[in-house]
Amino acid sequence: MWATLGVFGASSGNVPPFLLNALCFGISGSLATIWLASSGRLGLLRQPARIWIFGTVGLFGFHFFYFTAIRNAPPVEANLINYTWPLLIVLFSAFLPGEKLRAHHVLGTVLGLGGATLLISGGDGIRFSDEHAIGYGAAVASSLFWSSYSVLSRRLGKVPTEAVAGFCLLTAVLSLACHLMLEQTVWPENAVEWASVFALALFPVGLAFFTWDIGVKRGDIQVLGAAAYSAPLLSTLLLIAFGFGALTLSVVIACLAITLGAVIAARDMLFKKGGGNGSAV
Q1: 77 near 127, Cβ under 8 Å?
Q2: Residues with Cβ within 8 Å of residue 255, at least 6 apart in sequence
Q3: CA-CA distance, 216 to 226, in Å (whole number)?
């Protein structure tokens, strides 16, 4: 779902980022809340203040710093720094109870980062300059926000995933406030652009956050971190398929590196050997 962000975003017209964020999170949060109300589970949104703060700061903080980064630094460098969050998830997971960070987790994730670097740069190299320090700092902050939010979510396993609906609504409110202070209003101009906004709200800026919450709370978090590098890869392939890019050698190499990295990181999960007690060897 996150891989469709590029295609739907490119088709949504010239809507400024914070307004687009407010629209998407507002739609996704409202639809989720209506679903909870119709199924008699609206009470699941009744959570302590610290949970609301945590979830809203995680979602809004990531997007706020990401938008700040791409406005104050070249998009290639900003995206590359931002996409260190899967690697940080793997590294931070070592501090979680019951989790063990092994060499193949790190190796697989670093391979994924290498593939993402090649993919984002197009093989042309990366050039950092002092004049974009604010943008680079914001990109670091966005990466830290999302990786920390993801890892700490595992410590909140008793908080129902349905609470994400409330996080989305509050993120929409804060995004609207940023839009009113920082941007000029530009609405989608036609049916295709509005359909793209709704598609964003339903999937990459909607359901994806609910499924991610389930994954980080119940899944193998190291494998999730490494596999997250498939998002920029699949996004690139979708953009190519829809005519927004071209298939190049660097894309092919990046595909191989990211796929190999994910397989290496998921070695324990993919290549279990049946034993007497069913444990992995």
Answers
A1: yes
A2: 115, 233, 237
A3: 13
**Is 0.90 topped by the overall pTM?**
no
| Angle ∠(155,160,164) on CA atoms, nearest 5 | 95
Which among 257, 250, 245 has a CA at the least distance from the CA of 123?
250
Distance CA 153, CA 24 (A): 22
Residues 6+ apart with CB under 8 A from 22: 172, 173, 175, 176, 179
pLDDT by 10-residue block (mean), the chain, 281 residues: 88 93 97 96 95 96 92 83 88 87 87 84 70 89 94 91 97 97 95 96 96 94 88 85 82 86 82 48 29
Q: Which residue stretches of 39-163 are H helix?
A: 49-72, 75-82, 85-92, 103-121, 133-153
Hey, CA dihedral for 93, 233, 83, 163, is it positive or negative? negative
Give the 3-state secondary structure of residue 204: helix
